[in-house]
Amino acid sequence: MAEPLSKRLAMSISGAIPGIAIAAGLLVLPAESALRQQYWPWLPLLTLALGMGFSLFFWLVIVPWRDRDPRK
């Protein structure tokens, strides 16, 4: 049974989790940390964008394609 579009859109938000986790990890480091200075803010933003993009593609393209009825 195919999920409704609203449910698939809600599930696509899960793509934000890796970006949030990386941002939280970098924010825990002191502001003077070389790791934080090197990767903040571009790495969390890039991860957020890629995660959301892949998640939207999965939930809005792959899932409906997988659930199609081959008899039609």
Word description of this protein:
- This protein is mainly alpha-helical and 72 residues long.
- It has one domain (10-66).
- It is 71% helix and 0% strand.
- The chain is built from 4 helices and no strands.
- The radius of gyration is 17 Å and the shape is rod-shaped.
- The model has no long low-confidence stretch (mean pLDDT 89).
Radius of gyration: 17 Å
Q: Which consecutive residue ranges, at least 5 long each, have pLDDT under 50?
A: none
Q: Number of helical runs?
A: 4
Strand portion: under 5%
Give the termini distance in whole angstroms: 15 Å
Fraction of residues in helix:
over 70%
Major sheet description? none
Number of domains: 1
Mean pLDDT: 89
Question: Gist?
Answer:
By secondary structure, the chain is mostly helical. It has helices at residues 5-12, 17-28, 34-39, 42-66.
Blueprint of the fold:
Elements: H1 5-12, H2 17-28, H3 34-39, H4 42-66
Helix pairs in contact: 1-4, 2-4
Note the main attributes of this structure.
single chain, 72 residues, mainly alpha, 71% helix, rod-shaped
